[in-house]
Amino acid sequence: MKNSTIDMTEGPILKKLIAYSIPVVLSGILQLLFRTADLVVVGNFTGSDALAAVSASGPVSGLIVTLFMGLSVGANVVAAQDIGAKQTEDFRETVHTSVAMSLVLGAVMMVLGLFCTDFLLNLLGTPAEIFSQAKTYLWFIFLGVPGTIVYNFGAAILRAVGDTRRPMVFMLIAGVLNFMLNVLLVAGFHMGVEGVAIATSLSETVSAALVLLVMVRSDSVYRLESKRLKIHKDKLLRIIKVGLPAGLQGSAFSISYLLVQSSINSLGATVMAAVTIAWSIDDFCFVSVNALGQAAASFAGQNYGAEEYGRIRKVYQYSMAMAAGILVVLGVGSYIFEPQLYRIFTDDPAVIAVGKDLMFLIGVFGFVNGTMDIPFNVVRGMGRSLFPMISSLLCICVLRVVWVCTVFAWFHTVTALFLCFPVAKGLTSVTGILYYHRTMRNLNRRNNEWLEIGRGE
Predict the structure, then answer these.
(1) Residue 99: pLDDT band by 50, 70, 90 thresholds?
(2) CB 102 within 8 A of CB 154
(3) 430, 357, 444, 336: which is closest to 391 by C-alpha?
(4) What does the pLDDT look like over 279-312, one tens digit per residue?
(5) I want to staple 185 with a disulfide (CB 3.0 to 4.6 A). Which of 195, 241, 366, 441 is the partner?
(6) pTM for the whole thing?
(7) Residues sharing a CB contact under 8 Å with residue 136, sequence separation 6 or more, in sequence order
(8) Burial degree of 4 (CB within 10 A; 0-12, 13-18, 19+)
(9) What is the model's pLDDT at position 449?
């Protein structure tokens, strides 16, 4: 389908950037509805302990998923660069390598996750009263990990050519299925946390199957053929070069979240429930800037492959302005309407009271998420992924560890703990902006040197 793809190397950038981003935003919202539906159903039908059990399990599954979502960023960037450079055969090899990787990695991580569930929950210091429910929830979530990984890799390939609509449709189908299964299994059959976990895993498997089906039946350049399904070493290395640092960065975020989660657990079930809801609300605010980040990486990738460096600069400027503006509006709004938002999940006044402070620190300062992620996504689109990883490890992960061991240890309050988020993200934002400008200066200098050599010849 020609109208399902976008040529990012020609034409008006802003219009195409918006057209690309809107379906990705909607896809992200639908994907978040998986977990939010879990929380709403659990909170209303099973109680605060079950809600805390889901909270305790979230960072563990997030650690696995973010690693391979980062690798899918590598697949997206490499595919976009191949398309921008008009290297059709290279693109086809990237497609088949990416899908083969996702199938292998999904199976491996599912098995490892099932065997390590107890260890991970013990590592977090999960309270004894919710340990059994947390284990059950996490065990069923790991069964759906292959579907999550395959969907993200397949969607990354489609988005590399500008097709963001069909991944959105697949996520819509899966989201509706997830909600229906939640109601059936939990409200109807009273299954508890295992019901919502089963619903999520089945839904994510369906979304993966739909992506693969479209790729198999397509007559486009990204057509998936079983006889060509293999891992090409050169494409694997290119994907790893970009994707592994991004994946390690995401996993490092999750590891630091595990440390924070352990600290949260020490504050009791009420704070755990409040934090779970706060992060869920913040995820909906962040999904828009995440979509812009994906768009920026794809646009930068295609234009880098086509050597249209001036368009990369415009992509950065438009993306930064939109991301910061959107998150200011959403962040402030989430703080103002915090009581109403929290009551969607729970009527517990103690949980709602804790949420007010959390949403001030998470929501009002949410704009730094935009200015943090956009610069790094643009340079990833140009194949530079190592420095963003190093910067994030130092500015976010290491800082969080130091913060928990010092500021939180001294004051031991939820406010003292969550103040580290805007501080860490603000510092990362500064380094990202500086690195983007340095990268563009070096790129322009090298391009001018090549032009001078050409004139000399």
Answers:
(1) very high
(2) yes
(3) 430
(4) 777 777 777 777 888 888 889 988 888 888 888 9
(5) 195
(6) 0.76
(7) 192, 193, 194, 197
(8) middle
(9) 53
